[in-house]
C-alpha cells in the first residue's frame, strides 16, 4: 500500500524589530516631515504666492526682467517715444492688445477699442494700479488721455492654452497632479485676494462661462497664475448694503451661480431693474469648475478630486450664505496638497510602523 507523503507547515516566529531599527525608522520619518515642512514653507512664501513680494517696487514704480533698479511707470510721453508696436495679439469688447517692445523687452500695449466702454477701460486701469501684487499682472505705465495701458508680457498667454502648453516637450514635466494642484491653489489665492483686497470685497464679474474665466488669467513661464483683466470688478459693501450685478443682461447656464439667474421663470420677461443683486459668493460657486479644468486628467488627479469632493460640494450649495469663503477653500486646498505630498514621500510608512 502506497504511503501518502506527509507535509509539515513550518511555523515562523514573529519578526522582531530591534530598538535600533525602530529608532532609525522613526528618525527617517521625522526627517522626511522636516523636509516636507521646509518645502511647503518655501512654496507658500517664496514661490510667488506670498502676499508680500520683495521684488515689488514702491507704488508708481516697476522692475522688469533682470534689472535691479525700480523705474517709474511710463508716462504718455515715454510710451509714445519708447514703446514700439510689433503685432496685434488679441482684441476684446473693451480693448485691443499689441505685443510691443520697450528697451529690448517684450511688453503688452492695450488700447481702448470702443469709446462707449471708456468707463470700463478706466475702471480696469484703476484696479490694476490699486491691486499691484504677486496676484496681478505687472503694470509698466499708462496714458489716460490716450486710453493706453502697458503691462508685462507673458509668452505662455492665457490659461485657455494650458493643456496645449503642457503638451509642448519643454513643459511635459510640468503635467503632473502636483503642479496642476498648485495652479488651482494659485487661482483660489487670487479669488481670496480679490475678496479681501485693499479696496474691499471685489467680485470677478467677467466669468459667465469657463472660457471667459480662463481668458482673464495669465500663465507665467515659471507656472504660476496672474489675473490680467480687471475691467469688471464691482465692489460689495455689506455695511452700506451694497451688493452687485454682473452686467445688465440676463445670465443663463449652469456655470453661473443660481442667484445670478433670472428667478421669476420664463413667463416673466427679464428686466434688469427687477433682477436681485448678489455678493462675492458667485465666485465661490465657480471654483470647482475652474479647478476641474486646472487639474486635468493626469495620473493622480482623480485622487486630488476625491480629497476636494467635500469642499467642492460646499461651494455648490444653492444658498450663497452656506458656501465657504475663499479663505476656507484655500486652506482646504493647501491641506490636501500637504497630505498628498506626505503620502507620496512616505508610502507604506504607516504599515511599517
From TrEMBL:
GO terms for biological process: protein O-linked glycosylation. GO terms for cellular component: endoplasmic reticulum membrane. Keywords: ATP-binding, Endoplasmic reticulum, Kinase, Membrane, Nucleotide-binding, Signal-anchor, Transferase, Transmembrane, Transmembrane helix. It catalyses: 3-O-[beta-D-GalNAc-(1->3)-beta-D-GlcNAc-(1->4)-alpha-D-Man]-L-Thr-[protein] + ATP = 3-O-[beta-D-GalNAc-(1->3)-beta-D-GlcNAc-(1->4)-(O-6-P-alpha-D-Man)]-Thr-[protein] + ADP + H(+). The chain crosses the membrane at residues 20-40. Gene3D superfamilies: Transferase(Phosphotransferase) domain 1. InterPro entries: Kinase-like_dom_sf, POMK, Prot_kinase_dom, Ser-Thr/Tyr_kinase_cat_dom. It is a single-pass type II membrane protein. It holds the Pfam family PK_Tyr_Ser-Thr. It is found in: Endoplasmic reticulum membrane. One of its GO terms (molecular function) is protein kinase activity. Residues 83-353 form the Protein kinase domain. Its main location: endoplasmic reticulum. Its EC number is 2.7.1.183. Protein O-mannose kinase that specifically mediates phosphorylation at the 6-position of an O-mannose of the trisaccharide (N-acetylgalactosamine (GalNAc)-beta-1,3-N-acetylglucosamine (GlcNAc)-beta-1,4-mannose) to generate phosphorylated O-mannosyl trisaccharide (N-acetylgalactosamine-beta-1,3-N-acetylglucosamine-beta-1,4-(phosphate-6-)mannose). Phosphorylated O-mannosyl trisaccharide is a carbohydrate structure present in alpha-dystroglycan (DAG1), which is required for binding laminin G-like domain-containing extracellular proteins with high affinity. This is Protein O-mannose kinase. It comes from Accipiter nisus.
Amino acid at each position: 500500500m502506497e504511503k501518502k507523503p506527509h507535509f509539515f507547515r513550518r511555523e515562523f516566529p514573529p519578526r522582531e524589530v530591534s530598538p535600533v531599527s525602530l529608532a532609525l525608522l522613526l528618525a527617517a520619518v521625522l526627517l522626511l516631515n522636516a523636509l516636507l515642512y521646509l518645502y511647503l514653507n518655501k512654496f507658500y512664501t517664496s514661490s510667488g504666492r506670498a502676499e508680500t513680494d520683495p521684488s515689488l517696487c514702491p507704488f508708481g514704480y516697476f522692475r522688469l526682467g533682470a534689472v535691479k533698479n525700480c523705474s517709474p511707470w511710463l508716462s504718455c510721453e515715454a510710451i509714445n517715444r519708447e514703446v514700439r508696436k510689433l503685432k496685434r495679439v488679441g482684441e476684446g469688447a473693451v480693448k485691443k492688445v499689441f505685443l510691443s517692445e520697450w528697451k529690448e523687452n517684450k511688453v503688452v500695449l492695450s488700447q481702448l477699442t470702443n469709446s462707449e466702454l471708456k468707463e470700463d477701460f478706466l475702471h480696469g486701469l484703476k484696479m490694476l494700479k490699486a491691486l499691484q501684487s504677486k496676484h496681478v499682472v505687472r503694470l509698466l505705465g499708462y496714458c489716460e488721455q490716450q486710453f493706453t495701458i502697458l503691462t508685462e508680457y507673458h509668452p505662455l498667454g492665457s490659461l485657455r492654452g494650458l493643456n496645449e502648453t503642457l503638451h509642448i516637450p519643454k513643459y511635459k514635466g510640468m503635467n503632473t497632479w502636483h503642479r496642476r494642484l498648485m495652479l488651482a491653489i494659485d487661482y483660489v489665492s487670487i479669488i481670496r485676494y480679490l475678496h479681501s483686497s485693499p479696496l474691499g470685497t471685489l467680485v470677478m464679474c467677467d466669468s459667465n462661462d469657463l472660457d471667459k474665466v480662463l481668458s482673464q488669467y495669465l500663465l507665467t513661464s515659471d507656472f504660476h497664475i496672474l489675473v490680467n483683466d480687471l475691467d469688471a470688478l464691482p465692489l460689495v459693501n455689506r455695511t452700506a448694503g451694497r451688493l452687485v450685478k454682473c452686467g445688465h443682461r440676463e445670465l443663463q447656464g449652469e456655470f453661473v451661480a443660481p442667484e445670478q439667474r433670472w428667478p421669476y421663470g420664463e413667463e416673466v420677461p427679464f428686466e434688469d431693474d427687477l433682477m436681485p443683486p448678489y455678493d462675492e459668493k458667485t465666485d465661490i460657486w465657480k471654483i470647482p469648475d475652474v479647478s476641474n479644468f486646472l487639474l486635468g486628467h493626469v495620473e493622480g488627479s482623480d485622487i486630488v478630486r476625491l480629497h476636494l469632493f467635500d469642499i467642492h460640494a460646499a461651494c455648490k450649495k444653492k444658498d450663497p450664505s452656506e458656501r465657504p469663503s475663499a479663505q476656507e477653500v484655500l486652506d482646504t486646498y493647501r491641506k490636501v496638497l500637504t497630505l498628498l505630498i506626505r503620502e507620496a514621500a512616505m508610502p507604506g510608512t504607516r504599515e511599517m510602523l
